[in-house]
């Protein structure tokens, strides 16, 4: 099986060209073809000699693959299904919103974190995606040239696959890559504290932390990771980091009816987030099969937001998108996986 | 297992390492710190090397700290760990985590090497009023069988998915829980294993009427 060039950083491409005895400038040429041009095969790299292309072709291929299927919502959201490896499925969402077009990419096949509210977790963990497989979800979308924002909020825990995620961000933001501003990229994490530090050290992208309740005991019920990396440590780490004026930290808060939407939750959130310049994104829970958790009604969601705002916390409600196309992350790929297994 | 790069590390010397079942290893080093049964420590081969978290698999008062693991062939750490011998150093972090034992009644559900935190609780005197359900693929993977069966008696239930033997439930732990006549909704359920096992087991328990507030999980991050 040939190794894929797409997803290699410039230093990695340099290493490859050096090992193959190609001219030193060939690495930059490769990056130019891979990340600035629309190509799908080595033969299209016309400013690289035929001999060099043949040499590359013995061990490498470009490695850009189209999605295997797409579903389109009435609101314009599209859910793409990719099969990066045989029998392994990941989902990518394209979310247009006025002048913004966001792509939500997956970082793993399945997930290890086992959160109670998550459909992806029901697949178990099937593997890490490479940087190329992450970027392929961006590059092979028909809409890729119009994308304005990239969020790592699809399947998997990005910071559990940190090296590939950082490499993909390097390619997205480098001048030899896609040249995007890191301020257009947000990486979401469940709160793996050691990896948060590495992420903050090695990238300029925004950070989003899955919070979901300010109370430890409740968070343990929702998210097993709390037992190893408690929220208190996550917040300490965020407090100790200088985010500057441009970089943003936000907290994702899925609202579950009667579980995490009380005045006590508002008060405790205000207490634990005191001193952190941040925003809370409230997300309405969309029930998944066999879940004991319920979706809140609109008025509860609105009053929860208003109460947080009164406490001085910038709070938004994330618009629910693609509700008619299995938009809850993991539903589409789980269906495909079950179909394949049967 | 989660990478644990930033926590304090120090070297310790391996006092024993043995393959207790094909591909399953147990190693130990002298205990010179306190921990709570059920906690994890980070382990690395070098001071700056990649670290992974493992549940401590020995009692709070035992002279040795033991770690149970299976070799992941494509992994970085475990194939190298398996090659280490007595007298060689490894690097450890301080213990952490709150998947810890309680004195009251509870059901412990483990798959494979997920037995480690429960063995630590068992060795620490926390097995009173506990039922242990251990799932494995093969009969020779019921680690610490002698001790568990002697002390827990009928409260020690083995589930084997690939082999059959008289007193062993033939199937996975999820099958056993699905078929169990009665599951007490008042006690706490502790789950430890892979993400898939924990999620499936949690779904079965919730489906059988166990409130999710009573289910606590430790996953091999």
Keywords:
heterodimer; A: 342 residues; alpha/beta; DNA polymerase, domain 1; TIM Barrel; 2 domains; two-stranded parallel sheet; 11 helices; 33% helix; globular; B: 221 residues; Elongation Factor Tu (Ef-tu), domain 3; Rossmann fold; 12 strands; 19% helix; disordered N terminus
Low-confidence stretches of chain A: none
Give the tally of β-strands of chain B: 12
Gross morphology of chain B: globular
Rg of chain B, rounded, reads 17 Å
Integer average pLDDT of chain A = 93
CATH class categorisation of the largest domain in chain A: Alpha Beta
Largest sheet of chain B: 6 strands, antiparallel
CATH-defined fold name of the largest domain in chain B: Rossmann fold
Query: What is the terminal separation of chain A in angstroms?
Result: 27 Å
Task: Give structural notes.
By secondary structure, chain A is α/β, with parallel strands linked by helices. Chain A has two domains: 3-61, DNA polymerase, domain 1; 69-341, Alpha-Beta Barrel (TIM Barrel), CATH 3.20.20.70. Chain A is built from eleven helices and 14 strands. Chain A has helices at 10-20, 26-36, 50-59, 131-139, 162-173, 193-202, 216-222, 231-239, 263-272, 298-310, 331-341; strands at residues 3-4, 60-61, 69-72, 78-85, 88-97, 100-104, 108-110, 125-128, 149-152, 185-189, 206-210, 249-255, 278-284, 314-317. In chain A, α1 (10-20) crosses α2 and α4 crosses α5 (162-173). The two termini of chain A are 27 Å apart. The mean pLDDT of chain A is 93. Chain B has two domains: 9-93, Translation factors (Elongation Factor Tu (Ef-tu), domain 3), CATH 2.40.30.10; 106-219, Nucleotide-binding domain of ferredoxin-NADP reductase (FNR) module (Rossmann fold, 3-Layer(aba) Sandwich). The longest helix of chain B has 13 residues, at 195-207. In chain B, β7, α2 and β8 (130-136) form a beta-alpha-beta unit. The termini of chain B are close together. Chain B has helices at residues 77-82, 116-123, 145-152, 173-179, 195-207, and strands at 9-21, 24-30, 40-44, 52-55, 64-70, 89-93, 106-111, 130-136, 156-160, 169-170, 188-193, 215-219. Chain B is built from five helices and twelve strands. With 221 residues, chain B is of the alpha/beta class. Chains A and B meet through α6 of A and α5 and β12 of B.
């Amino acid at each position: 099986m040939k190794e894929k060039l797409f997803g290699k950083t410039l230093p990695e491409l340099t290493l490859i060209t050096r090992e193959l005895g190609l001219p030193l400038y060939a690495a930059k040429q490769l990056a130019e073809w891979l990340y600035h041009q629309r190509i799908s095969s080595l033969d299209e790299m016309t400013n690289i000699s035929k001999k060099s292309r043949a040499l590359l072709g013995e061990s490498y291929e470009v490695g850009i693959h189209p999605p295997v299927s797409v579903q389109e919502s009435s609101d314009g959201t599209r859910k793409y299904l990719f099969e990066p490896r045989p029998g392994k499925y990941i989902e990518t969402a394209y979310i247009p919103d006025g002048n913004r077009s966001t792509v939500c990419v997956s970082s793993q096949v399945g997930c290890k974190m086992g959160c109670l509210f998550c459909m992806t977790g029901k697949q178990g963990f099937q593997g890490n995606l490479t940087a190329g497989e992450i970027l392929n979800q961006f590059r092979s979308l028909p809409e890729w040239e119009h994308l304005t924002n990239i969020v790592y909020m699809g399947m998997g825990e990005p910071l559990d696959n940190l090296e590939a995620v950082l490499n993909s961000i390097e390619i997205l933001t480098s001048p030899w890559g896609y040249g995007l501003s890191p301020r257009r990229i947000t990486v979401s994490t469940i709160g793996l504290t050691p990896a948060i530090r590495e992420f903050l050290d090695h990238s300029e992208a925004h950070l989003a932390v899955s919070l979901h309740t300010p109370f430890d005991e409740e968070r343990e019920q929702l998210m097993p990771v709390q037992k190893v990396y408690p929220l208190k440590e996550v917040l300490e780490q965020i407090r100790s980091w200088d985010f500057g004026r441009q970089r943003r930290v936000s907290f994702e808060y899925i609202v579950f009816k009667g579980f995490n939407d009380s005045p006590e939750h508002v008060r405790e959130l205000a207490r634990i987030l005191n001193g952190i310049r941040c925003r809370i994104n409230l997300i309405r829970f969309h029930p998944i099969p066999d879940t004991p958790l319920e979706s809140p009604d609109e008025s509860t969601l609105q009053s929860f937001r208003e109460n947080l705002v009164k406490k001085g916390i910038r709070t938004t409600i994330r618009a629910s998108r693609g509700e008619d196309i299995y938009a809850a992350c993991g539903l589409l790929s789980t269906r495909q996986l079950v179909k394949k297994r049967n | 297992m989660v990478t644990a790069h930033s926590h304090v590390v120090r070297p310790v010397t391996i006092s024993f390492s043995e393959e207790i079942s094909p591909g399953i290893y147990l190693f130990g080093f002298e205990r010179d710190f306190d921990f709570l049964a059920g906690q994890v420590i980070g382990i690395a081969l070098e001071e700056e090397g990649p670290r992974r978290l493992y549940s401590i698999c020995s009692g709070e008062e035992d002279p040795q700290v033991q770690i149970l693991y299976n070799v992941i062939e494509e992994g970085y750490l475990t194939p190298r760990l398996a090659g280490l011998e007595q007298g060689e150093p490894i690097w450890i972090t301080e213990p952490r985590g709150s998947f810890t034992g309680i004195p009251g009644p509870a059901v412990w559900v483990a798959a494979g090497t997920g037995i480690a935190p429960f063995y630590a609780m068992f060795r620490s005197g926390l097995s009173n009023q506990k039922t242990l359900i251990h799932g494995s693929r093969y009969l020779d993977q019921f680690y610490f069988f002698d001790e568990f069966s002697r002390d827990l008696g009928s409260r020690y239930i083995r589930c084997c998915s690939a082999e059959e033997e008289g007193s062993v439930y033939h199937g996975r732990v999820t099958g056993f829980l699905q078929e169990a006549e009665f599951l007490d909704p008042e006690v706490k359920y502790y789950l430890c294993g892979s993400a898939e096992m924990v999620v499936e087991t949690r779904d079965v328990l919730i489906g059988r009427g166990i409130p999710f507030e009573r289910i606590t999980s430790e996953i091999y991050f």
